[in-house]
Design brief:
0% strand, membrane, 135 residues, globular, transmembrane, mainly alpha, transmembrane helix, 5 helices, 76% helix
Length: 135
Protein backbone atom coordinates (compact mmCIF):
# COMPACT_ATOMS: atom_id res chain seq x y z
CA UNK A 1 0.00 0.00 0.00
CA UNK A 2 2.77 2.41 0.94
CA UNK A 3 4.70 1.84 -2.32
CA UNK A 4 1.59 2.55 -4.40
CA UNK A 5 1.11 5.85 -2.52
CA UNK A 6 4.66 6.87 -3.40
CA UNK A 7 4.19 5.79 -7.03
CA UNK A 8 0.90 7.69 -7.26
CA UNK A 9 2.51 10.86 -5.88
CA UNK A 10 5.44 10.49 -8.29
CA UNK A 11 3.13 9.89 -11.26
CA UNK A 12 0.99 12.89 -10.25
CA UNK A 13 4.06 15.17 -10.20
CA UNK A 14 5.69 13.73 -13.36
CA UNK A 15 3.89 16.09 -15.81
CA UNK A 16 5.06 19.12 -13.81
CA UNK A 17 8.63 17.85 -13.80
CA UNK A 18 8.33 17.16 -17.54
CA UNK A 19 7.18 20.74 -18.09
CA UNK A 20 10.13 22.00 -16.03
CA UNK A 21 12.46 19.77 -18.07
CA UNK A 22 11.17 21.28 -21.32
CA UNK A 23 11.28 24.80 -19.86
CA UNK A 24 14.90 24.51 -18.69
CA UNK A 25 15.90 22.87 -21.98
CA UNK A 26 14.38 25.65 -24.07
CA UNK A 27 15.77 28.31 -21.75
CA UNK A 28 19.28 26.87 -21.95
CA UNK A 29 19.21 26.42 -25.72
CA UNK A 30 17.77 29.89 -26.24
CA UNK A 31 21.10 31.37 -25.18
CA UNK A 32 22.46 30.17 -28.53
CA UNK A 33 19.90 32.02 -30.66
CA UNK A 34 18.86 35.02 -28.57
CA UNK A 35 21.09 37.67 -27.05
CA UNK A 36 19.53 39.63 -24.19
CA UNK A 37 22.85 40.79 -22.82
CA UNK A 38 25.69 39.62 -20.63
CA UNK A 39 23.56 37.89 -17.98
CA UNK A 40 21.66 35.94 -20.63
CA UNK A 41 24.75 34.81 -22.50
CA UNK A 42 26.96 34.40 -19.44
CA UNK A 43 24.86 32.81 -16.72
CA UNK A 44 21.53 31.49 -17.97
CA UNK A 45 22.91 28.22 -19.29
CA UNK A 46 24.89 27.77 -16.04
CA UNK A 47 21.57 28.07 -14.20
CA UNK A 48 19.26 26.06 -16.46
CA UNK A 49 21.69 23.30 -17.46
CA UNK A 50 22.33 21.70 -14.05
CA UNK A 51 18.63 21.94 -13.12
CA UNK A 52 17.63 20.34 -16.43
CA UNK A 53 20.14 17.54 -15.90
CA UNK A 54 19.02 16.99 -12.29
CA UNK A 55 15.43 16.38 -13.45
CA UNK A 56 16.67 14.14 -16.27
CA UNK A 57 19.04 12.05 -14.16
CA UNK A 58 16.51 11.63 -11.34
CA UNK A 59 13.86 10.44 -13.81
CA UNK A 60 11.33 12.82 -12.27
CA UNK A 61 9.66 13.58 -15.61
CA UNK A 62 8.39 10.06 -16.26
CA UNK A 63 6.41 7.34 -14.55
CA UNK A 64 8.03 5.87 -11.48
CA UNK A 65 10.66 3.31 -12.22
CA UNK A 66 12.55 1.40 -9.60
CA UNK A 67 15.79 0.33 -11.21
CA UNK A 68 19.51 0.58 -10.60
CA UNK A 69 19.67 4.01 -12.31
CA UNK A 70 17.05 5.62 -10.05
CA UNK A 71 18.44 3.89 -6.99
CA UNK A 72 21.92 5.27 -7.74
CA UNK A 73 20.76 8.82 -8.52
CA UNK A 74 19.14 9.64 -5.21
CA UNK A 75 18.49 13.36 -4.58
CA UNK A 76 21.50 13.78 -2.29
CA UNK A 77 23.89 11.85 -4.51
CA UNK A 78 22.69 13.63 -7.64
CA UNK A 79 23.14 17.05 -6.05
CA UNK A 80 26.65 16.22 -4.82
CA UNK A 81 27.72 14.77 -8.19
CA UNK A 82 26.40 17.78 -10.08
CA UNK A 83 28.05 20.26 -7.71
CA UNK A 84 31.37 18.43 -8.03
CA UNK A 85 31.11 18.46 -11.83
CA UNK A 86 30.03 22.12 -12.06
CA UNK A 87 32.61 23.34 -9.57
CA UNK A 88 35.19 21.11 -11.23
CA UNK A 89 34.52 22.71 -14.60
CA UNK A 90 34.97 26.15 -13.09
CA UNK A 91 38.15 25.08 -11.31
CA UNK A 92 39.57 23.75 -14.59
CA UNK A 93 38.81 27.14 -16.12
CA UNK A 94 40.60 28.91 -13.27
CA UNK A 95 43.74 26.85 -13.85
CA UNK A 96 43.42 27.36 -17.63
CA UNK A 97 43.32 23.62 -18.32
CA UNK A 98 41.20 24.41 -21.37
CA UNK A 99 40.39 27.60 -23.24
CA UNK A 100 37.50 29.21 -21.41
CA UNK A 101 36.76 32.16 -19.18
CA UNK A 102 36.75 31.75 -15.40
CA UNK A 103 34.06 33.69 -13.57
CA UNK A 104 33.45 33.41 -9.82
CA UNK A 105 29.78 34.30 -10.34
CA UNK A 106 29.36 31.00 -12.18
CA UNK A 107 29.51 29.22 -8.82
CA UNK A 108 26.41 31.10 -7.71
CA UNK A 109 24.73 30.54 -11.07
CA UNK A 110 25.22 26.77 -10.77
CA UNK A 111 23.54 26.51 -7.38
CA UNK A 112 20.88 29.21 -7.86
CA UNK A 113 18.41 26.87 -9.57
CA UNK A 114 19.93 23.45 -8.85
CA UNK A 115 19.52 23.71 -5.07
CA UNK A 116 15.85 24.85 -5.23
CA UNK A 117 15.05 21.97 -7.62
CA UNK A 118 16.76 19.60 -5.18
CA UNK A 119 14.75 21.01 -2.25
CA UNK A 120 11.47 20.67 -4.18
CA UNK A 121 12.39 17.07 -5.01
CA UNK A 122 13.23 16.28 -1.38
CA UNK A 123 10.03 17.97 -0.19
CA UNK A 124 7.85 15.94 -2.54
CA UNK A 125 9.53 12.71 -1.39
CA UNK A 126 9.08 13.59 2.26
CA UNK A 127 5.38 14.28 1.70
CA UNK A 128 4.80 10.95 -0.03
CA UNK A 129 7.20 8.43 1.45
CA UNK A 130 10.86 8.21 2.28
CA UNK A 131 12.48 5.30 0.46
CA UNK A 132 16.14 4.25 0.69
CA UNK A 133 16.93 5.20 -2.92
CA UNK A 134 15.38 8.66 -2.50
CA UNK A 135 17.27 9.81 0.57
Amino acid sequence: MEESTFDAKHDKNAPYWAAALVFFGILGLSTIWIDFGKFWKGYLLDMAGPAWNYILFRGLFTYKTNNSWTRFFSPNRTLVIFLIVCFGIETLQYFKIYDSTFDTWDFLAYISVLVPVFLIDKSSIKKSRNTPHNT
